Amino acid sequence: MKKLLFIRYKKPDGILEGGEQATKNSYTILSKLLGEENITTYYVHDGTAKKNLFTYLSAGLLLFKNYFYGLTPKRVKMIVKEAQNYDYVFIDRSVFGIIAKQLKEAGYKGQIISFFHNIESLYFGAKLKKHLPWRPILLHNVDMNDRYACLYSDKVIVFNQRDNRELEIRYQRKADVVIPIALKDKCLKKNCNTDVTSTKPLCLFLGTYFLPNNEGIKWFIDNVYPFVDIDLIIVGKGMGKFKQENNVDESIQIFSNVPELEPFFEKADIMILPIFKGGGMKVKTCEALMYGKNILGTTETFEGYDVDYDCVGGLCNTKEEFIEKINDFIQNPRPKFNTYSREQFLEKYSEEAVVDKFRQVLSLHAPQ
Which of 127, 301, 316, 362 could be disulfide-bonded to 273 (CB atoms 3.0-4.6 Å)? Predict the structure, then answer.
């Protein structure tokens, strides 16, 4: 059986953010195809390095040489040496594109696969505040790594056609395979609530402390929440900081760093996902589909998802649209458990739905 070296950002440290959930899923599917014993994981950020003034200064200087997220010349040299023992090197996240470059330059004979979670220059452009003095340096860095990933990878994967088009425009390279976000199914039948939505619906926003998430829910609180009769719950890693920074109405509940999300999904009548910026695909949307939720979201929320907006809940890009859709739920209660959402997850966004696409990436034949 062929062997694969899996390059990922960091070791899991409790609650997984969206990108790390996607990483975990890729690893799980690759393990099913090749056997876990044939995959070795290399963590770029392994948590063992001591953080001091020298390490921060070194990391800052390395940005100018296009090393990012804890990557150093020494680590890349180790990866290149280790890679000679493997048939594939799977680089999870294109911010590590410099690894692909140095593998090719060192004459690596195996297959280099880069998975673009986003077009990183666009993602970091949305993530970083405009006034940061090092913003141009970071954006140049991630742009160069995206470019390296395109130039030196044998296979490139993206989440959606939007990112595929952007790759072609920026780097004159199309992805070899488009693989949407997919998750391991955690929804059990006993959790499929048969109740109808409340006349005062419980609305759930799910998202980590992250600028596009913060801006989206803050916009909703300011522009929609005062004009609808709902209960609103915000759940996400680090969102206690959002509460501290904003004058949030006491009627809005905020839960930070919760270990288990399922109870919140089960109770919610509607998922509210007012996201206006970002890249790739939103893992929170996939989670909502998995749990069979009614979803009200923006174009960005549904980017990459092939769903009927009216069946899943509703497409809302303005305050008027959010208010109208929420009031429609209030006036016309419907099942809490949206069978259409659940069916779309199983058909298109579960692990089983994308296995063949990963098999295509590895050039493996389907079992007879």
Answer: 301
Low-confidence ranges of the chain (pLDDT < 70): 14-18, 46-56, 189-193, 366-368
- DSSP at 36: G
Paired strand residues for 272: 296
Q: Collect all residues with Cβ–Cβ distance below 8 Å to 78 and sequence separation of at least 6.
A: none
Domains located in the chain, CATH noted: 4-183+351-361 (3.40.50.2000), 189-348 (3.40.50.2000)
β pairing state of 270-273 and 294-297: parallel
| CA 53/CA 364 separation, integer angstroms | 47
Euclidean distance between CA atoms 270 and 293, whole angstroms: 6
3 state DSSP class of 250: coil
Sequence-separated (6 or more) residues with CB below 8 Å from residue 176: 155, 156, 157, 361
Q: How far is CA 220 from CA 123, 295, 325, 327, in A?
A: 22, 15, 13, 15
Buried residues in 151-182 as b, exposed as e (16+ CB within 10 A)? ebbbbbbbbbebbbebbeeebebebbbebbbb
Whole-angstrom distance, CA of residue 301 vs CA of residue 108: 39
Check residue 210 and give its pLDDT.
86
> Cα(5)–Cα(87) distance, rounded to whole angstroms?
8
Compute CA 37 distance to the chain's CA centroid, rounded to the nearest angstrom: 26
Q: 28: burial class by Cβ within 10 Å (0-12, 13-18, 19+)?
A: middle
- The count of other CB atoms within 10 Å of the CB of residue 298 is 21
pLDDT of residue 319: 98
Residue 107: predicted pLDDT: 96
Q: Give me the amino acid identity at 222.
A: D
Burial class (CB in 10 A: 0-12, 13-18, 19+), 368: exposed
Q: If you ran DSSP here, which 8-state letter would residue 69 be given?
A: T
The terminus-to-terminus CA distance of the chain in angstroms comes to: 17
